[in-house]
Amino acid sequence: MENYRSHPALVDLPSQLFYDAELVVAAEKSLVECLCSWDQLPNRNGFPVLFHGVRVRYSETVLNHRAFSVAGPMVWNSLPDFLCDTSLPEDTFRRSLKTYFFALY
Questions:
Q1: What is the DSSP letter of 91?
Q2: What pLDDT does 49 receive?
Q3: Contact between residue 10 and residue 46 where contact means Cβ atoms under 8 Å apart
Q4: What is the C-alpha separation between 55 and 74, in angstroms, rounded?
Q5: How far is CA 82 from CA 10, 62, 86, 92, 97, in A?
Q6: Mind listing the pLDDT tens digit for each residue in 31-89?
Q7: At 100, which helix (H) or strand (E)?
Q8: What are the extents of the domains in the chain?
Q9: What is the pLDDT of residue 26?
Q10: Residue 61 vs residue 12, higher pLDDT
């Protein structure tokens, strides 16, 4: 099974745990390593991950007493309007979202 989007550092563990080591990186090296030396990464040692922390609080609904996270909608609602346009193609949304988050740092 091939993964065409992720850096090898992100694929290795899930490959071992869930895919019997059969999940392999098939993306172009230049694509998955293009931000490895970005000066805003807190850790530039070949593991290009930037975590966006969200403090999770739960809200209980009266319907079936289920708890739902309110963090996801709060993050969504904090995005600029152009990103929340549901008519955007998925690839355009992903690229725009990455650009938006990278511009914050």
A1: H
A2: 73
A3: no
A4: 10
A5: 29, 33, 9, 11, 10
A6: 888 877 777 777 666 666 777 666 656 555 555 545 556 666 777 888 888 888 888 88
A7: helix 90-104
A8: 1-51, 55-105
A9: 92
A10: 12
Q: Which residues pair with 3 in a beta bridge?
A: 25
Please provide the distance, in angstroms rounded to a whole number, between the alpha carbons at the two ends of the chain.
34
Q: What region does 35 belong to: left with phi over 0, alpha with psi -120 to 50, or beta?
A: alpha
H/E run at residue 69? strand 67-69
The pLDDT value recorded for residue 71 is: 65
pLDDT, residue 69, reads 60
Spatial CA neighbour of 4 closest among 30, 33, 24, 34: 24
Q: What is the pTM of this model?
A: 0.43
What whole-number distance in Å separates Cα of residue 100 and Cα of residue 105? Answer: 9
Structure tokens at 16: 């071992």
CA 60 to chain centre: 27
Q: How many residues does the chain have?
A: 105
**Among the listed residues 96, 101, 55, the one whose alpha carbon sits nearest the alpha carbon of residue 74:** 55
Burial (CB count <10 Å: 0-12, 13-18, 19+), residue 11: buried
